[in-house]
TrEMBL record:
This is ABC transporter permease. Residues 68-272 form the ABC transmembrane type-1 domain. It comes from the Bacteria. The keyword ATP-binding does not apply. Its main location: membrane. Gene3D superfamilies: MetI-like (1.10.3720.10). The keyword rRNA processing does not apply. Belongs to the binding-protein-dependent transport system permease family. CysTW subfamily. The chain crosses the membrane at residues 12-40, 74-93, 105-127, 147-172, 193-219, 253-277. CDD domains: TM_PBP2. It comes from Mesorhizobium retamae.
Length: 288
């Protein structure tokens, strides 16, 4: 029996996609379904999960309002801070840097990823601790300066840890920028600032939105930086989940928080995609 070309293509596609699809189902979809089931249950007397069907866990989300408030406040602020630092770096790499050295400079941006995030965060703990920057400030007359275990320390750790993830998407967008548009703007007498805000920034918005969405989504589940640099005083949702699953062993309540977090992540993704599509569909270049 002869197999048609279309059926052969479908079989090849299924063979190629099958392992990846099975991996996603087993390690992503099924665990998430289990978390959803847990979220409607009750905490067993000895801890863990007890079958039930109740919305009490979702009604009790206000008990972790501080973790939600810290996460939903510091995550967008951290992403914005990363953007403010990353855009000039990405602009220099893509537009101003010598092409002969560009790949080397981009590689240096990625180098921090070769070191454990834990080690790098511990380094900031020392720098922000009593023997680090506060000690130097004390020597010049600024005493009792407290940097560690503050929201500022957490934001600093966020910018340091997630900066490369913001630089690279913006760099890719700027590298694809048609230089003839910049030359045309200059030939028409536009001021460099007008060229930058009228051409460069609008054309790089897809990379900006990708970087913001990527960093924000990862920050919504961040655990390590608030735990080490926040000292347990700046709680994120990730810290609340660790406490509920490992310490309190309240799996249903932790599952309800996890489901809510996933819903927030999906909402962020949809908003970012909608903005990106709108920008891509209505993008105009202003030369004046």
């Amino acid at each position: 029996m002869m197999i048609s070309t279309d059926n052969r293509r479908r079989m090849v596609t299924a063979m190629l996609l099958g392992p990846a699809a099975a991996w996603l189902v087993v390690f992503l979809v099924l665990p998430f379904i289990a978390i959803i089931v847990f979220s409607f249950g009750e905490r067993a007397p000895e801890g863990g999960y007890q079958p039930a069907f109740t919305l009490a866990q979702f009604a009790n989300l206000g008990a972790r309002a501080a973790a939600f408030a810290n996460t939903l406040t510091l995550a967008p602020i951290g992403a914005l801070a990363c953007l403010l630092v990353a855009y000039p770096v990405a602009y220099y790499l893509a537009v101003k840097a010598d092409p002969r050295h560009r790949m080397l400079l981009v590689s240096l941006v990625v180098v921090p990823f070769w070191t454990s995030m834990l080690v790098r965060t511990y380094a900031w703990m020392y720098l922000l601790g009593g023997r680090g920057i506060p000690h130097l400030l004390d020597l010049v007359g600024f005493s009792d300066v407290r940097l560690l275990n503050t929201p500022g320390a957490v934001l600093l750790g966020i910018v340091y840890g997630y900066l490369p993830l913001m630089i690279l998407p913006i760099y890719v967008s700027l590298e694809k920028l048609d230089r003839r548009l910049l030359e045309a703007s200059a030939d028409l007498g536009a001021h460099p600032f007008s060229t930058f805000f009228g051409i460069t920034v609008p054309l790089s918005l897809p990379g900006v939105m990708t970087g913001i969405a990527l960093v924000t989504i990862l920050l919504l589940g961040e655990y390590l930086i608030p735990q080490l640099l926040g000292g347990g005083k700046v709680f994120f949702i990730g810290n609340a989940l660790v406490d509920l699953f490992l310490q309190s062993r309240n799996w249903p309540f932790g599952s309800a928080i996890a489901v809510t977090l996933v819903a927030v992540v999906v909402m962020v993704l949809l908003i970012a995609m909608r903005i990106a599509w709108r920008v891509a569909g209505t993008r105009q270049v202003d030369l004046m």
